[in-house]
Amino acid sequence: YTNSKSLGPDGVAVYNGAIKSFYEIPFLVLIEIVFIYLPILFHAGYGLIILYQGKSNVARYGYEANIRYTLQRITGMIALVFVGYHVWATRFTSFITGQPMEYLWMVRLFEEPWRVWFYLVGTLAVCFHFANGIWTFLIVWGITVSKYSQRLALYVCFSLFSVLSVVNLLVIANFTYHY
Asked: Beta-carbon neighbour count of residue 17 at 10 Å?
């Protein structure tokens, strides 16, 4: 959300203002630990258990649901590596150096081509994992029980994946090419 603020006509100033207000949140580190890092660590740990216990049969049965099942595991592993690196390269490094992650910080992050590709793959994996995870959640929790509701939810979740992916691609392009 914050990165998307860089996309407007006065993106640099708006982004830097958003970052400044972010750093002014009282008890920021505690909030990040309790509401971001611990839930992500729990999700990652639980995901690794599911990955270890699960059995993909996509090679034998190439059904759409089996492909999504396998992609969910693959994108989960990519997302784990990506999010870990992203937090280290942005938030932790900013905390250690005492420098806020202003617009120029992000531009410098994308100066190396391998990072651009890493972020492209990582953000697409996160977007797919998120959207497909919501679709699965709706089924597992009994919210979408009929075939029709599951298909409708799949379209909505795929649309969510598409919108989030486009926004992320625009943000990466923005920081890479300094629009």
From this structure: 12
What does the DSSP 8-state code read for residue 25? S
Structure tokens at 125: 């994996």
Measured CA to CA, the distance from residue 100 to residue 94 in angstroms comes to 6
Q: What is the number of other CB atoms lying within 10 angstroms of the CB of residue 44?
A: 16
What is the pLDDT confidence band of residue 179, given thresholds at 50, 70 and 90? low
**Residue matched to tokens 């630990």:** 33
Rounded-to-integer distance, Cα 58 and Cα 106, Å: 39
Q: What is the C-alpha separation between 157 and 144, in angstroms, rounded?
A: 13
Instruction: Kindly report the pTM of this predicted structure.
Output: 0.90
Q: Which residue in 55, 80, 76, 81 sits closest to 132, CA to CA?
A: 76
What are the tens digits of pLDDT across the range 140-164? 999 999 999 999 999 999 999 999 9
> Tens of pLDDT along 19-33?
999 889 999 999 999
The tokens for 32 are 């990040």
